[in-house]
């Protein structure tokens, strides 16, 4: 078990692309970097880098990555080694390093699907076709669409300062249909109201 949660030295987006484009799995950049790939430039500093994988492919990813990397499960505030062949039915976050006490270099976020639909775990009635949850840069790097990334940010148990800043930065850049989808999704998750609804 490791406890050094702030020991991060994230690799770059091109380095993530080099690693994951060689794997037989579907993947997308997520988090703040996904928003910046949509913007086309870096808008702020990023403490880490996130990669989305589908849960149905996570054992394939483990097999492909474990030769070069050490993978840890993040569960209930604790980091424990992800063992070979261990199916992660409930774990959503994987932290990756080179081994030992070396810094964390990227995080994997597992998401659920059903048939051809992505499922938003915090409100499982919110779904979208898998083919419609990502975009691709001119270099061919896939990333989560901004309205979905903002839903993850706004739908968390507490909106962090950087999430609020990202919302204010990227809201004016969203297409009308993306704003409508984000508003409808937040309303479904928070029928009693959400701080972002007035702006949306």
UniProtKB/TrEMBL annotation:
Give a Pfam family name. Answer: Aminoglyc_resit
Q: Which domain of life is it from?
A: Bacteria
Q: Which InterPro entries match?
A: Aminoglyc_AdlTrfase (IPR019646)
Spell out the protein name for this chain.
Amino acid transporter
């Amino acid at each position: 078990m490791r406890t050094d949660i702030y020991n991060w030295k994230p690799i770059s987006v091109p380095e993530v692309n080099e690693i994951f484009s060689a794997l037989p799995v579907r993947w997308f950049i997520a988090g703040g970097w996904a928003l910046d790939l949509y913007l086309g430039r870096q808008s702020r500093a990023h403490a880490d880098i996130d990669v989305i994988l589908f849960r149905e492919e996570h054992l394939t990813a483990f097999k492909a990555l474990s030769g070069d990397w050490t993978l840890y499960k993040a569960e209930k505030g604790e980091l424990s080694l992800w063992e070979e062949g261990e199916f992660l039915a409930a774990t959503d976050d994987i932290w990756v390093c080179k081994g030992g006490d070396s810094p964390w270099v990227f995080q994997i976020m597992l998401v659920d699907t059903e048939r051809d639909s992505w499922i938003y775990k915090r409100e499982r009635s919110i779904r979208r076709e898998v083919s419609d949850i990502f975009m691709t840069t001119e270099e061919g790097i896939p990333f989560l669409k901004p309205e979905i990334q903002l839903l993850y940010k706004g739908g968390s148990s507490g909106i962090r300062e950087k999430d609020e800043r990202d919302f204010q930065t990227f809201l004016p850049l969203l297409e009308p249909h993306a704003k409508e989808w984000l508003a409808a999704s937040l309303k479904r998750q928070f029928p009693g109201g959400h701080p972002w609804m007035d702006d949306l």
